[in-house]
Amino acid sequence: MSAPLTATRAPDDMVAGTPGEEATVPTSRRTRWGAPTWALAGGVVAVWVVVSVLADGSNTLYLPGLGRTGFHDYFSDLKVDLIRGRDTNVVMQVVGALSDVFNAAVGWLQDVFSRADLPRPVPQVGYLGVLGIAGWCTLAVAGWRLAVAVEVGLVAVGLLGYWADSLDTLIVTFFAVGIALLIGMPLAIWIGCSRLARTVATPVLDVLQTMPAFVYLAPFALFFSIGPAIAVAVTVLYALPPAVRIAAHGIQMVSRTTIEATDSLGQTRWQRLAKVQLPMARKTIIVGVNQTIMAALSMVVIAGFVNSPGLGQPVLEALAAGRVGSALTSGLCIVILAILLDRVTTEASERSETLARSGGRGRAHWIGLGVAAVVALVMVYLSRLELRFAEFPTTSLGGTIASAVDSFAGWVTDHIGGVTTAIQRGTTNGLLNPLQDLIAGSPWFVTGTALLLLAGVLAGVRGALSTAVCLGGIYMTGLWYDAMVTLTSVLVATVFVMILAVVLGVWMARSRVVERALRPLLDAAQVMPPFVYLIPVLLLFDPTRFTAIFAAVVYAAPVAIKLVADGVKQVPEATIEAATAAGSTPWQLITKVQLPMARGHLVLAANQGLLYVLAMVVIGGLVGGGALGYDVVLGFSQNEYFGKGVAAGIAIVLLGVMVDRVARRAAETSGTSRSGAT
């Protein structure tokens, strides 16, 4: 139905169109059976609730925390067999040789930059030399402002007392990123130029990106020994997908017209790639490098579980001992490094585009770089010559901050502990427990059928098929009950993420002042490794499921908020003006115009929120989240439960693939039905 726009107050169910057009009512999406989607989904849930109550917690496939199945024992036995056959197994010998290379390379870099290269009592290049090298490299790729910022940031982590640990973090990160790019760039070129390669690689990359970072540790522990080697190997695999996907996307997006025009001049495939596609995709490729570095840096704390050098170990040790202040101080160093690396690579991307258009750098730039290089070399020489320029000065700043944070944590516990406990208990009893009773407490075949039907209603036949395959895989892992408990936490966290995303996203889109205030905070939040979020959350709450969910919400909210804000901002100004002229109130404008027209971004925000929340599942297991997160941690920490940890990792991946596929198909179906509505 539609009605011409008039100067009267807009009815509650009217959405304004552009000037000269008729306003349209956003029709509810309907299924092939003719019923509204919400009605069918509500019917499925209602029947599910009734059957769940009647079943009274039977046939849930509950497995005790220390219980195991034959599926779990198979992987545990496989680990034992691989370890016993290390000397005769060709694969283990190859991996062992690769592990030795990784350990030797990281060890050599540490001798150069971060630890005493005995019998020399200090590294080959002291802190002053590191500052000189870092400043010159930043100046070359990102300009003098960021060069100053990098110097200040590195001095800050040194003053906090984590100079060597920070350098170790950078060593492992850059070494892993270098390997990831060495592997990823050829793959990206292949995928960008070949439809067949893209078809084959997409599902593999989907699985790699869906798998939480912690889950990578268990299978890699089969082959690599504890230490830098396994940290590098896991980081490479975790950081590889963004490098491949973003660079391949940039190559694919090169204008077809440009390629055809240059092909007409008789260029070869290699010339097309080297002189057209790669130069025109330069900015996107650097964005891929940025995301690869961020992904690698997010593994810092997790790599601490396998005795990797860097800031991960101080964070874990402080958390294990309950020293929130020390955990926050070392975590702050990770945040500083993440922000610096993000800003440098982002600026490098923008400068590459500007230089490509302007024709390159001028003579003054090269002279400035030459002078800076001389200064950097002098700083390196002094750091090798004088002990005072080699060892970073010892300060008490980090200890002072840690003590202040510990005192504040005590004050929080004494003064607002009752409030946070009430919030925690209210949410748990009022929302978490009832939903868990429905999803995990129903008979497994009832929950499976309900999820299949909901997937079919929301995402069509393809969504239901993906759900069926994933649910079948979860059943085979023997961890159905734990998977459903985890799904409950993920859904609850995602609801809270979307509430924050809609409220703050709309506010940002409608207020430039709010956007200017929130955007830098959201940008900074997005570069923080997930483990860092646990530290402030543990200040407020005891280790429980709620604490894990709260940390997941804080981690996932920034990306969802930005997506919603961008979607609302993209609503045409003419449409908003027409609705305002028709008498729409601000509330009507938001609910009847901006949010419906930003539906695609809302669905994408929900999709990304789900995946970010799922990425915190294992980490949540460390602070009382239980379920699959606990299973993964248990499997990694105790050899006899190694197989259960692997099975839990498989279940997490299947959950991620399931919710991702349903959300994507729901978005596509929603977009199709909306475009067809009149």
Describe the structure.
With 678 residues, the protein is mainly α. Among the domains are: 125-159 and 361-395, no CATH class; 164-359, MetI-like (MetI-like fold). It is built from 28 helices and 2 strands. The protein has helices at 37-55, 70-84, 90-113, 127-142, 144-159, 163-193, 195-210, 217-220, 228-252, 256-263, 269-280, 282-297, 300-303, 312-321, 324-358, 363-385, 397-439, 444-477, 480-510, 512-527, 534-540, 545-569, 573-581, 586-597, 599-615, 617-621, 627-637, 642-676, and strands at residues 2-3, 23-24. Strands 1-2 form a two-stranded antiparallel sheet. Residues 1-28 and 673-678 have low confidence and may be disordered.
Keywords summarizing the entry:
mainly alpha, 678 residues, MetI-like fold, 77% helix, globular, 28 helices
**CATH domain class of the domain at 164-359:** Mainly Alpha
Strand runs, count: 2
Terminal Cα separation, in Å?
A: 7 Å
Query: Beta-sheet strand percentage?
Result: under 5%
Number of helices: 28
Coarse structural class: mainly alpha
Low-confidence stretches: 1-28, 673-678
CATH superfamily name of the domain at 164-359?
Answer: MetI-like
Listing every helix as H and every strand as E from the N terminus to the C terminus, the arrangement reads EEHHHHHHHHHHHHHHHHHHHHHHHHHHHH
* The CATH topology of the domain at 164-359: MetI-like fold
Instruction: Work out the radius of gyration.
Output: 27 Å
Sheet of most strands: 2 strands, antiparallel
Overall geometry comes to: globular
Q: Classify the helix fraction into a percent range.
A: over 70%
Question: Strand arrangement, largest sheet?
Answer: 1-2
Name given to the CATH architecture of the domain at 164-359: Orthogonal Bundle
Average pLDDT, rounded to a whole number, is: 82
